[in-house]
Amino acid sequence: MINVQICLFAYNLEESIASCIESVMENCGSYQYELFVMINGCTDQTYDIVSGIADTNSNLHPVLIEIGDKSNAWNTFIYQYYDGHSVAVFADGDLTFGNNAFKHIVDCHISQPHYNAITGFPYDQGRSSKQMQNRMQQNHDLAGGLYLLSPLFIWALTNSHVKLPVGLIGDDSMLGFLSATNICSGTDLPKQRIGVCVKAVFIYSHLSPLRWQDYKLYFRRRVRYSLRYFQQLSIVSDLKQQGISAMPAAAIHGTSASLHQVRWRSSNLIFDLISKWMIDRQKMRLHPESDNTSKSLS
After folding, report:
1. CA distances from 113 to 97, 148, 264, 272 (A)
2. pLDDT of 230-248, one tens digit each?
3. What residue spans in the chain does CATH classification 3.90.550.10 cover?
4. 3-203, which class in CATH?
5. In what order do the strands lie in the sheet with 117-122?
6. Any signal peptide, and if so, which residues (predicted)?
């Protein structure tokens, strides 16, 4: 019998978490599953809503985490709640899912167990979604909205004591890199190590130009994309050169942002500059003595 553990990430999702949980439960087919909702750093009613649903669903487990950080929530699930043998599926709590999406991604693992990871597929409407689909099929990228990690690969991660850096943006990109390289083995083979399950569809709501809140969400999202760019550029470069031992405990410890890394001739420019300022400021807080030294020398 195949047992499935689903890890659902939730941060201030009181408006969407109930519909997301319902969508998960409706699309697991006949597989026996446990659903862990990693409620991290929420300041709204997300925990109360999930707890209320759990009262009548014994396979639903709300997990309250003080730190609002997705990578830390991933670490918490893997090292404290994963049972070591189930098929683990990860998903975002602000999505809904296509017909039998979780069944399909588990089926894909059963039929192709050699993959370290299997990615779900974004809904097929809209230009950006089409571009993402084409990129995923060509490059075998891992999508953070819905993905599966094989039990054997999770064992390899935990056996090597691998944790995602706290503060890392883009857990999917990092896990995709670790999957494709067999945890920094010296080879990079995404097509052989990451499967793409086109039937495991996840659906996200589109931003509306008529909502002011969506403009703010878009701006924050673009800044986070730039932060992810600098983090991946720095941390992955270190991992390629030094191996998995170079993985920092906190993302900021392994992140740098120099002016020559800024994407000057692109739509990312303003967001890259904001992200660089944020990274420099955070590093200054970590090492205030270096700033004082530079001031005294000047």
Report:
1. 23, 11, 43, 39
2. 999 999 999 999 999 999 9
3. 3-203
4. alpha beta
5. 60-65, 32-40, 3-10, 87-92, 146-149, 117-122, 194-203, 96-97
6. none
